């Protein structure tokens, strides 16, 4: 019997975090460096921190490919909100081309069941992964670039921002629905517990919001207008402990050029893919590494 035939898929548990972290770091470093990019994960410890966070979140379902106790790969499905998303799918570089990634993706899709949509963001230079996702029913919806840098401006006088609390969830959900047709309330609830979501307030209402997850890395954001989103990015840039990193839809010419004009640089190309429902955004936004 060939070695890959012994591989079984099972739910990830907190005790898998170290093994998942090592596999995530190895897999992402391998594909990034082969294409001339620096890995998004600065160390095994960084990847392990993320894996531990994901395995502990009730809204996240992890799956590992296990070969007699050895973790060969993993995938995480964010299933808290109506739109599900696949995050951090990885396979040990020594065990690739054995359909482990395909099996993990198929398991994630099966787990999502009759969800209205399943989404993901992938590195556009990883053509093997893009082909896999397309063969499983995902469609390209948005070209993205990861932008890095500190905006070379400060928020203008009179800019008002504050921390988001659970009392703001309905207002935030309404803004997200106006832009995307769906809300991400469970994600924001998790963020309130783990991070410090920030709202840009205009005329007494929330006009934009997002949150920092690690150093200068931003999650997703939505806004009523480009002015509001740009003001929020200036606030977050001033608060971050490191240069900002966030995903910009390149079809949003104003936001893209604003980032470039403020001294930010393009780090890598990305692709937002969806399986099922997708509404063209009706306002300025930027997606996370999930969607």
What's this, in brief?
By secondary structure, the protein is α+β, with helices and mostly antiparallel strands.
Walkthrough of the structure:
The chain has helices spanning 17-34, 44-56, 100-112, 127-135, 169-180, 185-194, 226-239, 253-261; strands at residues 8-11, 60-67, 70-78, 83-91, 117-123, 139-149, 160-163, 198-202, 205-210, 212-214, 217-218, 221-223, 244-249, 265-276, 285-286. The chain has 8 helices and 15 strands. It folds into 2 domains: 3-115, Aminopeptidase; 147-286, 3-Layer(aba) Sandwich (Aminopeptidase), CATH 3.40.630. It starts with 7 loop residues before the first strand and ends in a 5-residue tail after the last strand. Helix 1 (17-34) crosses helix 2 (44-56). The strands form 3 sheets. It has an 8-stranded mixed beta sheet with strand order 1-2-3-4-5-14-6-13, with helices on both faces. Strands 7-8-9-12-15 form a 5-stranded antiparallel beta sheet, sandwiched between helices. Strands 10-11 form a two-stranded antiparallel ribbon. The protein is of the alpha+beta class.
